[in-house]
Each structure stands twice: as C-alpha cells, then as structure tokens.
Predict the 3D structure of the following.
Amino acid sequence: MNEWIIDVPSELAKELEDCFAMGPIVNEDGTRFLAEEVFGRLNGLRIEVFSNEHPPPHFRVCFQGECNNFTINGCVPLNGNALSTYFRNIKKWHKKNKRKLIDFWNKKRPSDCPVGKYLED
C-alpha cells in the first residue's frame, strides 16, 4: 500500500517540538532529562496522519530520522521504540491534543479509506 502522507497543522507540531526542546520527560511527574544538544536536535520533527490507511487509527511522529506510530485512542506505540526517549513527551502532547488529532484525522479521510472516521469509544 502506498502511503499518502498528510502533515498535521503546524501549531500541533510546534507544541510537540517545544516539548522536545525542553528535553525528554523521564518520569510521570514531568521531570526532564536535559542535555546540551537538545537545542540543536529539533529540525525535522514531523507528525503525520495518512489518508490511505489501515487500522487501527494512528499517527506517526518522526524525529531525527527515527519514527514511531501511535494509536489515536490511547497513544500506544505500534512499531517498536525508536523514539522511546520521547514517549512521555508524545503522550503528554497527545493527552492535550487528542481531540484536535481526531478532528484532523476525520477531516482528511477520503471516501474510500478502509479505516473511515474515528469515533471515540
């Protein structure tokens, strides 16, 4: 299946990019691991949704040449742990922006998409 990539709106990507800039979140209370190289690592962050898709509804985060897919429902990683250092950052962003992500997903579904619109349980 060919991927038809649609980048999410820049304001959603900017929020996650800013979160990455502050360093990886290392525990549930939001403590971060800060490294000197953080400020130079933000180029290339992408959050993507695909219009020609397979279940479950999901989005992709790519950063520094590494990518992970996450479910829209619970932000569960679908394909390994390439961005595991930033999983908490992504989960925090997802929690705040899930509704916007769902709205964007539904807006971009073509009529012949096998997954269709996302409906919250």
In short: The chain has one domain: 5-107.
